[in-house]
Design brief:
This protein has twelve helices and 24 strands. The longest helix is centred in the first third of the chain and has 18 residues. The two termini are about 45 Å apart. By secondary structure, it is an alpha+beta fold. Strands 8, 15, 16, 17, 18, 19, 20, 21 and 24 form a nine-stranded mixed sheet that branches. Strands 1, 2, 3, 4, 5, 6 and 7 form a seven-stranded mixed sheet that branches. The relative contact order is 0.14.
Length: about 500
């Protein structure tokens, strides 16, 4: 297959033509004059399109644009925030003054003085994510036709009763400037295509599904067509009906401690829930307790908590190519970085913004501030959190499977559950293959694996090599009140984990 080349791009002229500099001058000058010791302005534009088909027919095409600007200020150690949809200098002055008023009003209630970690000044900086074909430059009928073609390939197979197809596309553009002198313009594109085949047993009143496993990614339309050679849509769509047929006839699983090989298409979600959320510093010190919970990985255990076996090396980053959380600079003007969260199985780091870094005794943020709209305050959000592969040997998934006498190989994510401290969890998947004497021996049904975070990662005997490493992720990570949604990627290799408790979901449900 011929691959398209990735060309360097500039931020769209439509966004650069907005009165960005005029808004900045008006807002920052007004904030200073009103008494702010610090101020920043963020212009945020998000363009979205969702296309959904069922059985090859269009169910919905939804387009939206969210555009506005926000001003944050610090007055005597207290935050103030205000936003507006009208991008005029006169409105920017009013919004800046309102932000100062908010800070002044809240000052009497503030118990923790805001101190920002230092960051170099980035004057007139620009960053654009890595993609070849802007999905918003592809005509909608052309995108619908491709999804119809993919749907027809599945629906033509015996045993497939329904097919659902969906692609969500987002282009996000921001302009950030602050009183220190940074001025940063950014643009990133991301999308998530997926198809699902459904078989129905009308007599039993039951159904079963099988979904494509292409992860959401910071890529362009070339990813959906397969022109970049990243995902084999033709091969996967051809195999899904057979996998689905095998799943329907598969025997139910026997519960109990079991050795597992977990594919990256499943493991990314376990990383997200048990490591990604657990190492958010604001959660670890209780800031999310009222809504999304806290974390068992508290700061008093930094450098001592045994998270997993010594082969466990987990990084956070904002720079992974095609990562959903990758940016040039975060929403506080901090340059993208990579750092360790777990090294040799021990907790060694957190995800931080400019406020939380000094509280942990660090001189600099690692760039984890993000707001999903101009009308939301930037908060500490998850970076790309990834388990690193074997740095010495390129161990294959097949070799990991060969080490197991009696176990299960898990592929693809599905449902999950984890407690409010990110400690007790259970996960299911798309496909479960029985392992017998080091070989795959057909599918199983009704499988979920259950563990505590430290028991699971403490049972990890081996990680696959770089050739098994895959970047998974999600579009819809939720956090905060009012709620915000962020997209985040998680890279990982295949892993071998010993003695994990397997549940039979059918019997657990009382069926």
């Amino acid at each position: 297959m011929c691959c398209v080349s990735i060309a360097s791009r500039a931020v769209d002229e439509e966004f650069r033509a907005l009165p960005l500099a005029a808004l900045a001058e008006a807002a920052l000058s007004a904030a200073r004059a009103a008494g702010a010791g610090y101020a920043d302005l963020r212009v945020h534009r998000q363009v979205r399109q969702s296309i959904r088909l069922r059985d090859g027919r269009v169910e919905a095409v939804t387009d939206s644009i969210d555009l506005g600007f926000a001003v944050r200020v610090i007055v005597d150690g207290t935050w103030g925030f205000a936003s507006h949809a009208d991008l005029s200098p006169a409105t920017a002055v009013q919004v800046a003054r309102r932000a100062v008023t908010v800070a002044t009003t809240l000052r009497a209630l503030n118990r923790e003085r805001v101190e920002l970690a230092d960051e170099p000044v980035y004057g007139d900086a620009q960053w654009v994510s890595d993609y070849a074909i802007d999905p918003f430059e592809v005509p909608t009928p052309e995108k619908v036709a491709l999804l119809q073609d993919y749907s027809e390939r599945l629906s033509a197979a015996d045993g497939v009763d329904h097919v659902e197809a969906h692609v969500l596309q987002v282009k996000e553009q921001t302009y950030y400037t602050d009183t220190a002198g940074s001025a940063i313009t950014q643009q990133r594109v991301r999308l998530h295509p997926h198809l699902e085949a459904i078989t129905v047993d009308a007599g039993a009143g039951a159904f079963e599904t099988m979904r494509t496993l292409a992860a959401p990614a910071g890529r362009g339309w070339e990813y959906v067509t397969g022109a970049d050679g990243v995902w084999d849509w033709t091969g996967e769509l051809a195999r899904i009906p057979q996998w689905l047929a095998e799943k329907v006839k598969a025997p139910t699983v026997t519960p109990g401690p079991t050795d597992l090989v977990v594919d990256p298409t499943n493991l990314w979600l376990t990383i997200h829930e048990s490591i990604g959320h657990a190492t958010e510093y604001d959660r670890a010190i209780g800031y999310e307790a009222a809504y999304a919970g806290t974390s068992f990985a508290t700061p008093d255990q930094l450098g001592t908590l045994r998270y997993g076996t010594p082969i466990m090396h987990v990084t956070g980053d904002r720079v992974e190519r095609h990562g959903l959380a990758s940016v040039g600079y975060d929403d506080e003007g901090v340059a993208g970085q990579r750092w360790d969260l777990v090294r040799e199985g021990v907790l060694v780091g957190y995800q931080l913004d400019r406020v939380f870094a000094p509280r942990l005794g660090l001189d600099r943020s690692n760039g984890c501030s993000y707001a999903d709209s101009a009308h939301h305050v930037p908060i500490q959000r998850m970076a790309n959190v990834s388990l690193q592969p074997d740095p010495v040997r390129d161990t294959s998934t097949e070799e990991l499977i060969s080490r197991i006498e009696n176990g299960i190989y898990i592929v693809g994510d599905k449902s999950w559950s984890i407690d409010m401290q990110r400690y007790n969890f259970q996960f299911t998947g798309q496909r479960f293959f029985r392992i017998r004497n080091g070989r795959l021996a057909g599918q199983l049904r009704d499988v979920a694996y259950q563990a505590t975070t430290t028991d699971f990662w403490g049972s990890m005997e081996a990680v696959g090599g770089p050739s098994t490493w895959v970047l998974g992720g999600a579009f819809n990570c939720g956090k905060a009140q009012p709620g915000q949604v962020a997209a985040v990627s998680h890279g990982c290799p295949s892993v071998l984990v010993r003695g994990v408790n397997i549940l039979n979901t059918r019997s657990e449900a009382g069926r």
